[in-house]
Amino acid sequence: MAGTRKIAVAVVLAALALTATACNDTDGGGKNAAPAAPTTAAGPSSAAPSSAAPSADAPSTGAKPVKLTPAVLLEQVTQKTTAAKSAKIDEVITLGQVTMKGKGAVSWADGLQGDITMDLSGSPLGSVLAPVTGGKTAPYRYTKDAMYMRLGGDAVDAFGGRHWLHYSKADMAKASGGSTDQLKSADPVQGVRTLIAGGKVTEVGQETVNGKATTHYTGELSADDIAGATGTGLTQDELAQIKDNLTTAGVTSETIDVWVDADKLVVKRTEQADTKVGAMKATVSYSDYGTPVSTTAPDPSDTVELSELAKLDKGATS
User: What span, in angstroms and rounded, lies between the C-alpha atoms of 99 and 280?
Assistant: First the structure.
């Protein structure tokens, strides 16, 4: 049973790592922020005319206000959403036969920080994980450099009353098949930047999402699309890392959709792909941008290292 619990924990962590970073690996701001969007987009239309009256000798040009291209507008979205720094989230993650629902609040001002409670009651994994978490819900705490899962039930007794399983960045990378920087960022802009990087973003139309009027954008991209992307605000090393993450996960193509409100903030994001462990779909809704988030790491005396979990499994097996 201990070995099964270890596998269950690894599956949950792998799913969280995959969806939290959107198969991406960039900081929430600074040098990796998307470049400033131009005030007008290339196309047959020209800039809006000046409010000043035209010369009597000058014919009217009939110029109309410019409609920004989806890519240019999404660059502006990255700026507004990045500047908001935090939000409440409501997510549903499906990876193969595992389904999880999460609620909480996160900040991306300085790496990923926040608290999310995952509900596993709708998945067989909930019963498997119950001896580790003490129930079918699993509280997670994200800090800039690590992630912690709240232990409960038999696990607390087995580890001498300690309550938090510690996953370092390297542990998370191993679980998710990604890089050692998997916890760098989980802001909603990552999906937007990936759309821009793919170079195939299109506007679907106007839709009401979570009671808000939004514009829906979509794009399907492959590892090769990412590798050849330019002008996205991402460095070549970052683009290469995205491609490597997709390849490692067995993803040949990924579909990303974002819904943006009138304030140019992401209201909803979905990502879908076929992976080595089954179909993956992550749906995340964002609200209450700018909500206060203050998360601290548990006291080291109250944490359990992943290596200890492995030792417990070996002891149970022997």
Answer: 10
More confident: 199 or 66: 199
Q: Taking Cα atoms as reference points, which of 103, 175, 154, 198 lies closest to residue 304?
A: 154
Predicted confidence (pLDDT) per residue in 182-235, tens digit: 444 456 777 787 777 777 889 999 999 999 999 999 998 777 776 666 655 567
Strand-pairing partners, residue 100, are 93
Q: 């690894």: which residue's tokens? A: 10
- Amino acid 161 reads G
**Which domains does the chain carry?**
2-36+73-313 (2.50.20.20)
Contact of 105 with 95, CB cutoff 8 Å: no
17 exposure class (CB count in 10 Å sphere: 0-12, 13-18, 19+): buried
Q: How far apart are CA 23 and CA 225, in angstroms?
A: 14
Please give the residue that has the higher pLDDT: either 269 or 67.
Answer: 269
99 Cβ neighbours under 8 A, 6+ residues apart: 92, 93, 120, 122, 123
